[in-house]
Amino acid sequence: MVISSKKQRKVAIFDVDGTIFRSSLLIKLVEVFIEENIFPSTAKKGYANEHKLWLERKGTYDEYIEAIIRVFIEHIRGVSYIDFLKISKKVVDKHKDETYVYTRTLVKKLKKQGYFLLAISQSPKGILDTFCKYLGFDKVYGRFYETDADDNFTGHVAELHLIANKANIVKRAVERENLSLKGSFGVGDTEGDIPMLELVENPICFNPNQKLYRFAKLNKWKVVVERKDVMYDIAG
Questions:
Q1: Is residue 142 within a helix (H) or strand (E), and if so which, with residue range?
Q2: CA distance to 52, 67, 190, 216, per residue, from 62 (Å)
Q3: Are 117 and 107 in contact (CB under 8 A)?
Q4: Helix residue spans in 77-121 (DSSP H)
Q5: Using CA atoms, how far apart are residues 115 and 202, in angstroms rounded to an integer?
Q6: pLDDT at position 3 over 70
Q7: CATH topology for 9-234?
Q8: Using CA atoms, how far apart are residues 202 and 188, in angstroms rounded to an integer?
Q9: Contacts with 183 (C-beta within 8 Å, 6 or more apart), sequence order
């Protein structure tokens, strides 16, 4: 058995949409695909009702995002990967600085301290790579949409079971990148981040939804809320 002498790096794990980015990269991506006539204008109908219900607080954000995902999967079929990258760059160039003060400051702080920065998101990996590279992340995990022999999207997501379980991703990254969970940080905003947050020593629930907030209070996790130019640190 060969034991690596390379020193393990501490890891900080971040959700991206709604945690660092003040919206969803996928939402912005779909909007620009429609603006560029790559997706038909009628694609808006696929999520308009869920968006309206969310704005009126009669529906959930998760329902809105699920509708966006369905529209993306339906209309990305046949789109070339080159066009996808062009639209992704356009979205990131326009919105890359629309981030929360608390999390972008934490990212910079941990980066300076030598932490390995790991991003895990349900947005497409292609746009995440561009966005997270700008912020200085070392590794990115996102939904990987398959392409065919002509480099056009099929609409299928590869290894969806893996990206759906953030804890498994963290364990894989820790092993492959020679990382240590000692002194680790994790930042998330929904109950889907709980398995990941349970693995780290310093879990932070940032602008959490109700389910995550309740779980955080029970487990005395740090809760931070940022509204306008004010940050509230709510003790667990």
A1: strand 139-147
A2: 13, 9, 10, 19
A3: yes
A4: 81-95, 101-112
A5: 13
A6: no
A7: Rossmann fold (3.40.50)
A8: 11
A9: 10, 201, 202
